[in-house]
């Protein structure tokens, strides 16, 4: 039923231009202010974290409808069309405006899905990125940011290809999931013929106000982050200097990891084991060496047994002082998303009452938790992905957290700087235009 | 990695009692008030709709760890244990309290996951239901509500068994997805050995304030609902009178349907086709016969062509005046959830650039939308599920909406009335206790 007649039978205006943006409508009174699409850096990075996030990766179409390979120049042109469409739509959406008519549309079709009519922008941000493979695909190898290459394999990886990689990336954040769904639909509807969706993920944060949000292990997550507006932040995040292609100045890198948490195991370990895995107390976020959440950890401090109170293989001891902005979201999908191939521990559907279990209280297969997919959509924004690699290599080698987590998706993107009105986000890659 | 050692190696205190509830902590100042677990009717029905919802169905374990069938009396006892655990946890969670220690727990394990520490209850409600099969499984056929039987098949059904049915049901609604995730984990963690998860779904509504929320077709959805506190509402929703077992007075039925929307097709149809499918204008919600959102529709009114302006096969004309409370949520999963078996139109992963498409703009397989799963988690609360059946039969026979929707999941539950402190939600089924 879903396939029957979709898009068929009508004269489709293919590639019709975006409607010109109409003057900004003020967001609903009392609503939070709109974020800015134009400027120096893309929004959604230094922006205080919104409560919801939708992440998606796309790949460019490299074949024509008959399956014939397109020329590199044609693919590069398609890419620019898509970036023009996306940049225009993103700018309008962030102001709380309709995205404009879809490029593939019937005469008489409405200019917007209307699902966000009456909703303020709710701090909507759309942040775009470019994957390593993209630069080959569009013939711009020379312009590839210097550190943009696939991440090395880490010993603890359990990556699913279906949740990894991608040539184009978008992060959509905001305080209202309906405006996010609206925005994603507007982007996705502009892709057919040019690019197709590769993966998507959705996350949330509780309404913790000014307090550090908690992850699904219950720990405050983000304590040691550099603060926007400080030199430490700018140093950690924004690319500058002569070792990068000049078009990329003011940009950054995003390392994205889908990290599953084994909550049944975590929930049945002791509070001490939990705190020692992190190196901080779950209730207050204070380091195990004492003080409050923002007291600097004292890694030399020992307990009555002569051992360091912050274990050397705790997460904190291993990854401390590695500069990056972590801007992660929690996810809770209950069951695994479709993209993951069924594994031997997948019992959903098959594993119905009456089937045999050795011991439902000790056997993972018997807990009813084995297909449960929940964890962290880990996002590190940083000037040098080498710092992520260094941190992740230390974690893979020793981190106590490893007993409770599993990296199942991975991607890396170059996040270009923002643009001025009239230019699309990747225009600097095509100086001749 | 996920399976290694989960719950293993520790002396587990099986079936340990819940910790006694400590005195209510006031919700964070300025936060919305907490909803009440105890009372006449369960909360989450007449409660003004919260912004997020988590729906899940469970089945009782009917075999022991060796696969041997349990006696009906043993299953009924397990069921009561679970309802006691869930009722106690729900009452605490709705007050913004920790749920209490898990029944399966190690000494030293924390009393709560802590992921909602510092969050106000945000109008959290937990609403429980009982499926038709349950009454056989626990040997209480005599007590089965009179209208509680599996729904008949409808001609347009495309149901997935993995998204349908269930013996036990929980709806968790609230304004903060992190408290909802917290609550679901607390319930699920109480099930091992007694019941296992069958399916789960998650939905949202935009922050429309006092305005009627919009569904993902962009239409206002809920306009004609009876208003809580009116006689029309009570008549439509709450069970009373002698034709039902007396324990069920003050309860209601829930019909749950997972309805996928074909957004690419909708987005490329005309505004007129869209409005005529519903019988109302998308922008204002007014009936096509004129007026504003709450003007009664005039089905006799004809246009210049002599045809009724509200088409007789529009949704509105077909289902009008059928009494029920619709309390539905939008969902947007991007890709299909795992539970659905791969069909011939599933191209995710396989359908990569370079594969052949007859026409990417006219062929559904080429839109990149074919595995996109988004729509409505339709919830009808009503005194008589026969009214739903009547409405759905009319829809299946004629509704213009059918061209754009597909029912992929279905379930029906009896929702018992609320209880007084100290009793669990299904206690009335076991009068001897
Ligand atoms: C599910 C996986 C993870 C969890 C639950 C987790 C949790 C935490 C927590 C609770 C803290 C302490 C509070 C804070 O400063 O935010 C922390 C700090 C940190 N984490 Fe993670 N983390 C995870 C994965 C990672 C990964 C993959 C990396 C990078 C490879 C990383 C890098 C860091 C860094 C750099 C810090 C700050 C350390 C400092 O300088 O004090 N984390 N993490
Ligand atoms: C995706 C599927 C559906 C969509 C998009 C949809 C949408 C709508 C809309 C826009 C309205 C008008 C505004 C309002 O009163 O809420 C409406 C009314 C209504 N719908 Fe649906 N609906 C769907 C499925 C169903 C189903 C499955 C049923 C029951 C079998 C149903 C029963 C009703 C009823 C009883 C009304 C009120 C009619 C009146 O008395 O004015 N709907 N629906």
UniProtKB/TrEMBL annotation, chains A, B:
Residues 17-44, 97-118, 271-307, 340-367 are annotated as: Disordered. Residues 42-204 form the Dyp-type peroxidase N-terminal domain. Residues 212-419 form the Dyp-type peroxidase C-terminal domain. Its cofactor is heme b. Keywords: Heme, Iron, Metal-binding, Oxidoreductase, Peroxidase, Signal. Residues 17-28 have a biased composition (Low complexity). It comes from the Bacteria. Pfam families: Dyp_perox_C (PF20628), Dyp_perox_N (PF04261). SUPFAM superfamilies: Dimeric alpha+beta barrel. Residues 341-367 have a biased composition (Basic and acidic residues). Belongs to the DyP-type peroxidase family. This is Iron uptake transporter deferrochelatase/peroxidase subunit. It comes from Nonomuraea recticatena. The lineage of its organism: Bacteria, Bacillati, Actinomycetota, Actinomycetes, Streptosporangiales.
